[in-house]
Amino acid sequence: MPQPLTLELADLMALAVDAQRLDNPPGQIPPGALTGERVSRQQGRGLNFDSLRRYQPGDDVRLIDWKATARLRSPWIRLYNEERERPVFILVDQRLDMYFGTRLQMKSVAAGNIAGLLAWRSWHDGDRLGCAILGDDELALHPCRAPKRNLMPILTDVQRMNAQLPAHYAQNHRQNVSLSDALQRIVRLLPSGSWLGIISDFHDLDTRCDAVLAHLRRRCEITAYVTLDDLHRRLPPHGQLAAYYHDVSTALNLTSHLSDRIQQSVTERLSQQQRRLQRMGITVKTIVTGNAVLPQLQQEDAHAGKRV
């Protein structure tokens, strides 16, 4: 049974079976799919040479094979197979702000489980896998490689950085690495045409993030997995609410009016965050930490349209 406060490596290893119940990440072509089953999301034509044939009116002149044309004294073009492999890159947030939860699991645990499921899905599909694990003091980077080579180092780093959070909480550790820092660092690691999954609460989404995300979106598909605790939806209409954050503590006497204002404020902030990401063409999926992760991912996938 997964621990609600921290992750164990065994928990992440056990996700291998559950990952088979997920659809392929957005834009992925499932293994064994037939050409023409759905509209291709590839960036440009495939790179795998298939054969030569005579040029026909309407063919792209950029496909002309000039050596074969010179040798055969008539125009010939090169045909390519569709490029079926799309690298998967995961950016997962394991900073202290993610160490929060009121039911079932911490945001950091939910984020780690999402990363594990996506990593195992990539392993099953045979797509190249890369990852960046964002911590308070470090950014662990894993360039895109074959999943059999990269999977275990990625899962190990996710568990290691997740395990540091209780000590950081006790020390009231300060955040030294921002989301914008992480995004800037991964730009050079993302192959063009890849799929990027960002798993975070996006608490420090700012204009610098916007600029890098807009640049990345021109090169790849992006899905944002926004992890949140829905405490604001479950606040009682009256009573006392104690809060503590970065050495600041307070207690509030809740009234129906104050409870409604808190819910409205948080809901509006989350809506603005979602609209901000969607304006850049980023797919947004909300993950509530009080519920199991896998059914939420399956529900979102079913809503988006079942893939083969």
**What proportion strand?**
15-25%
For the record, what is the CATH homologous superfamily label of the largest domain? von Willebrand factor, type A domain
So, CATH architecture of the largest domain? 3-Layer(aba) Sandwich
Global outline: elongated
Strand order of the largest sheet: 5-4-3-6-7-10
Distance between the termini: 30 Å
Q: What class would the helix/strand composition place it in? A: alpha/beta
Instruction: Give the uncertain stretches in residue-range form.
Output: 29-44, 302-308
Q: Could you give a short account of the major beta sheet? A: 6 strands, mixed
Task: Kindly identify the CATH topology of the largest domain.
Answer: Rossmann fold
Mean pLDDT over the residues: 85
What helical percentage do the residues reach? Answer: 25-40%
Estimate nothing, just give the exact number of structural domains: 2
Tell me the name of the CATH class of the largest domain: Alpha Beta
Helical segment count: 10
Number of strands: 10
What would you report as the Rg, rounded to the nearest angstrom? Answer: 23 Å
Q: What does it look like?
A:
With 308 residues, this protein is of the alpha/beta class. The protein has 2 domains: 241 residues, 3-Layer(aba) Sandwich (Rossmann fold); 34 residues, no CATH class. Helices cover 37% and strands 21% of the residues. Helix 4 links the parallel strand 3 and strand 4. Helix 4 packs antiparallel against helix 5 and helix 7 packs parallel to helix 8. The radius of gyration is 23 Å and the shape is elongated. The C terminus is likely disordered.
